[in-house]
Design a protein that fits this description.
Blueprint: H1 31-48, H2 57-82, H3 94-115, H4 119-140, H5 145-158, H6 165-184
Helix pairs in contact: 1-2, 2-3, 4-6
Length: about 190
């Protein structure tokens, strides 16, 4: 640099300002990019999934961060392909992004399963909660007489032994889940 902040070429770039994104390529490792997007997902999930409680917020946030990062890598890969005349396959730019995308998609999918945010895990979660409530009610002797009478009537109508109705329900749920899984397979 020579006199008055100018370098030998006679000009100088202004210093970077706070909050610049000049070096940002994907944004998946930047909390300034990830946090606001993840917060939107957390808010939407907590509002639309009534089984999620306030105590689930940390787990929902972990899912939202993984989902956001996967989305940012997917967007970056799409932009990278659009910028090329000939699609690349595994260049030094997109290969690490592909790896990161797969990792974050897997992480997000695992979180979705744990939170009941996909159809199969939501059905399993509903079944487990219902079964636990029924078992608790039976153990404490507080099963409503009307519900017990309806269960007994259904068992009688279907010709199954008394008390076996819960197994029929579980088998029926398993059949529905299996049928749903088969419909999704390509």
């Amino acid at each position: 640099m020579t006199g008055r902040g100018l370098d030998k070429r006679g000009y100088s770039w202004p210093p970077f300002e706070v909050g610049n994104t000049a070096a940002l390529t994907v944004g998946a490792r930047s909390s300034r990019v990830v946090d606001p997007l993840a917060a939107q997902l957390v808010e939407a999930a907590m509002a639309k999934a009534p089984w999620l409680l306030d105590s689930d917020t940390a787990a929902v946030r972990a899912w939202a961060i993984a989902e956001t990062r996967a989305g940012l890598y997917a967007d970056a890969l799409a932009r990278h392909q659009e910028d090329r005349a000939v699609p690349c396959a595994g260049c030094e730019t997109c290969l690490p992004w592909d790896t990161a995308l797969a990792r974050w998609q897997t992480t997000a999918a695992n979180h979705r399963i744990r939170l009941g945010l996909d159809p199969l895990s939501r059905a399993q979660l509903g079944k487990d909660v219902t079964q636990a409530a029924l078992n608790t009610s039976r153990a404490s002797g507080t099963v409503d007489a009307q519900i017990a009478a309806e269960i007994a009537a259904l068992e009688s109508e279907l010709g199954i032994p008394s008390g076996a109705g819960r197994y029929v329900v579980n088998d029926h749920l398993s059949d529905l889940i299996d049928a749903d899984s088969e419909e999704r397979e390509p």
